[in-house]
Write a structure and sequence with these properties.
By secondary structure, the protein is an alpha/beta fold. The chain has a single domain, classed as Alpha-Beta Barrel (TIM Barrel). Strands 1-2-3-4-5-6-7 form a seven-stranded parallel β-sheet. Helix 2 links the parallel strand 1 and strand 2. 45% of the residues lie in helices and 12% in strands.
Length: 243
């Protein structure tokens, strides 16, 4: 919740040309709902794709202030589901996140499905238990075929907006645990193909370290994505490490 619609459009008009040379990395911006129309129009014909920040699980109804998946069709290709701030501030439970994942997929959107442990769960060494539960519940009813259009993002809650970041080895190991959970649910083919990102105080100066880890396929970035130069540096680091 940073930029106005006008600021968002100005931002992506500067961003898209800066990212044009990085064809090996998929690039997605997720502005606020108010900015989606302008941003989608501004990015037509560019390599940068658009995502929404959340979605409601019902197709329509008396849900004042909410946005249904069908309302995003044509404006967004992706949608973030289960972000730690939605879990913390807006009451998203594992079961509610699952409903949102299914609603997004049903509308043809690609969920960026976020999971991660709180600081107390991390300190109590419950990370593996928590992320396995979140993945298992969040993917209920999702078919193997639908998994090809889904991205998982591991974002430890204690590293979101705190300036703290998970050690790259720890992040890689946890992403590996998530991949093992997907493997248990769907088999080797889906587990090997699904893209799993890391998010949590990712910055230009640590992006290469995360991207060098074998299990981590990309990044879900917050504050560091708000400047064109930083966003471009993140994409450049990803392409260098994964290309």
């Amino acid at each position: 919740m940073h930029y106005t619609p006008a600021e968002s459009v100005a931002f992506v008009k500067e961003l898209a040309p800066a990212l044009a040379g990085y064809a090996g990395v998929e690039q997605v911006v997720c502005p606020t709902f108010l900015s989606l129309t302008g941003v989608a129009e501004a990015l037509k014909g560019t390599s940068v794709k658009v995502g929404a920040q959340d979605v409601h699980w019902e197709a329509k109804g008396a849900y004042t202030s909410e946005i249904a998946a069908g309302m995003l069709v044509g404006l967004a290709e992706y949608v973030i589901v289960g972000h730690s701030e939605c879990r913390k501030y807006l009451g998203d439970t594992d079961e509610r996140v699952n409903l949102k994942v299914l609603a997004a997929l049903g509308a043809g959107l690609k969920p960026i499905f976020a999971v991660g442990e709180t600081q107390s769960e991390y300190e109590d060494k419950k990370t593996a238990e928590v992320v396995a539960r979140q993945v298992t519940v969040g993917l209920r009813g999702v078919t193997a075929e639908q998994m090809t259009g889904l991205v998982v993002a591991y974002e430890p809650v204690w590293a979101i907006g705190t300036g703290l970041n998970a050690d790259s080895t720890y992040a890689n190991d946890t992403v590996g645990l998530i991949r093992q959970t997907v493997r248990r649910l769907y088999g080797d083919g889906v587990a090997d193909a699904v893209r799993i990102q890391y998010g949590g105080s990712v910055k230009p100066d640590n992006m290469a370290e995360y991207m060098s880890q074998p299990e981590i396929d990309g990044a879900l970035v917050g504050g560091a994505s708000l400047k064109v130069a930083d966003f471009t540096a993140l994409v450049a680091a990803a392409e260098s490490a994964k290309g």
